[in-house]
Design brief:
homodimer, 12 helices, 5-stranded mixed beta sheet, 15 strands
């Protein structure tokens, strides 16, 4: 602001509240932040020289060299050898630069998906999010503590399969999960205020992060899929949930309930839902409902009609969300969605929303298949342990 | 992370993308950030000693004293005199502390509301967001450049009414406004890619911030009203728009279209809207539509039915948004909304959404009346000029 020569007046009474009172920033925070920035840059692009990293991050070469030395000591960054230089470069600039990369094999991550109704699935992944080993444990209808015990057994088995130090354990759980990894509510597993993150951490003495499974899925889609812009990932399984990623930032809601669209009523004259209301989105879209309707459909035309109706209901429910958030992309994950269902949802959505200037709304299937939650849980570990915010 | 003694393995190929690659943080950023933090603390609570500010911010007393000296030089902070001390305090702690506050009268802000269909309204406000002077200019159907000229004339008149240095000019405009204050599209005013912020700044040589009017309104509700938690402010005028404030952070969308709910179709069999679709939310809720329907209603029961139907449509459109975002509060701003319309909207919303654990959804009228956009535009100036993020 411009400086003013006006005399200072007596202050009047009355306060006000402004946006986001944030915490103090101290110089030592800068180092931690910049370390993550170097890691992120290498993670995203790989194979760069110290000078490349300095250019991408805006940090000085001295700072980058210093941070890289620390990251190499921690085993996270490795030198790959010298860049193959163009002849002109040899003449003008001396020896070609040494290339750096994240050492993607130096650590393993355990990823767990608790969102399937019948089995808990898990994998050992490298830092690049590639699946190295898999395991699963049948749920056999377990709920409450018995379900937790099944999760522990799965993690134990995967830890035995890992062949590198473990960076951490990532878990995608159904239900409402808070930012301390407490599952506030997961009706299918009989969990209420289940201290899942804390109990896994205590049992295995490793860093653990527990997140909602649809939120894990949208992380995976962002990191390994093609998610761009303002994305909603709709995950259909035993229930219907969603993960939101807006301008590269995940949205959880102050009560951690963002994405809970399964029990939004789309037609009060619809079927009675387990929640007590009628015509919730889940009564058209969730697997048990679709299973039953498709089993009763005697012809392929009837089958198509069931799927199209489900897609239309999904489009009706999503249209106001697309408008309110200015979404540019809907990604679907789950069985039955590809084909007539997705087509009907896209048609309904386009008919019910105004196209944003300069953009078309995309509605598509995930490219990550059934591993989306496992891989997203691994990304959650990477984010937490490597300081990617 | 724990340090590891494992040998470093050869890195595998393949990159990935993580959340929010952010800019570097340098130590000098800390000072600017901490200066804002001190201002925010005083703005929110007022009348605090340097020691109080140190306690609230977590900064050292030396840092606070240093920043306060700078803020006093800039005329933003003023000493009010010594605190009236309790007798015991006198004995143990020597002289009572000097109280500081923002000097709320030291600067004035110009706030402008372009969202009314017939007049442009403006005010001179103090730093506390109180309205000191008002002015308005009849629009007389002006569009395009003629509308801009009316806005300039209004600002000029208000600048003549101000009696303190001007911190900045804040403008709430209808339509889609980007983060550089360009009105990308405002059909009622005939503006496309209108460089409003730049042209006002060039004309008056003052800091200017132009924001969408519903986004200004939700800022005002947050600063001066009772907005708590995850709030959507629905503003009804010639059109229908919304501002979103989630966990204290405003949501704009990557294309600046967040909150554009007016042209979401709630019933494809509804009336033909100006946008070409049928049954948009605006055909039930916007003032011209309600004016016409209420004029045709011959009895008070008919009038009630019109309002209730509009409220029901609003509830149907908002239910999926409430679910997807985990909203805890809907605030309404505009004529006709209070009474049967809001009641019907609340009833419909409750019937169509699942209550979040531990919380009830609130739907209420704003307490800020017709000044909500003016005051919100002033908050936008405060945020930009004083560095409140």
């Amino acid at each position: 602001m411009t400086t003013q020569d006006e005399p200072v007046r007596r202050a009047t009474a009355g306060g006000g509240r402004l946006l986001r009172p944030s915490a103090k920033v101290l110089p030592e925070h800068a180092r931690v932040h910049n370390r993550s920035l170097v890691l992120q840059t290498l993670y995203g692009s790989g194979q760069q020289s110290r000078a490349d990293v300095a250019r991408s991050t805006g940090l000085t070469r001295v700072t980058v060299s210093d941070l890289v030395a620390e990251l190499m000591e921690d085993g996270l960054v490795v030198e790959l050898g010298r860049r193959e230089a163009a002849p002109s470069e040899n003449v003008h600039r001396g020896k070609p630069a040494i290339l750096l990369d994240i050492d993607r094999a130096a650590f393993h991550i355990i990823g767990i998906d608790l969102g399937d109704y019948f089995v808990f699935r898990g994998a050992v992944l490298d830092l690049g999010g590639h699946i190295l080993q898999r395991a699963e444990v049948a749920l056999d209808g377990s709920t409450g503590d018995a379900a937790s015990v099944k999760a522990f057994a799965l993690i134990e088995r995967l830890l035995g399969q890992a062949t590198a130090p473990i960076l951490g354990i990532g878990v995608g759980s159904p239900g409402i999960v808070d930012d301390a990894g407490v599952v506030l509510s997961a009706p299918n597993l009989g969990w209420v205020d289940e201290l899942l993150q804390a109990s896994i951490a205590a049992r295995f003495s490793l860093p653990v992060v527990v997140v909602n499974d649809a939120n894990a899925a949208v992380l995976a889609e962002h990191s390994f899929g093609d998610a761009e812009g303002d994305t909603m990932l709709v995950k259909v399984g035993h229930g219907v949930g969603a993960g939101l990623l807006l301008g590269g930032v995940q949205l959880f809601g102050s009560r951690f309930t963002a994405g809970e669209i399964g029990h939004v009523v789309v037609d009060p004259d619809g079927a009675l839902c387990s929640c007590g209301k009628s015509g919730c989105l889940e009564t058209w879209l969730a697997i048990p409902w679709l299973d039953a309707k498709l089993a009763a459909a005697t012809t392929s035309a009837n089958r198509d009609a069931v799927l199209r109706e489900a897609g239309e209901r999904l489009g009706i429910a999503l249209a106001p969300v697309v408008g309110a958030l200015g979404l540019t992309e809907i990604v679907l994950s789950g069985p039955y969605l590809d084909g007539p269902l997705a087509e009907a949802a896209a048609t309904t959505l386009r008919a019910r929303t105004m196209a944003a200037p300069g953009s078309d709304l995309t509605l598509r299937m995930t490219t990550l298949g059934d591993d989306i939650v496992l891989r997203g849980a691994a990304v959650a570990v990477l984010s937490k342990q490597l300081g990617f915010s």
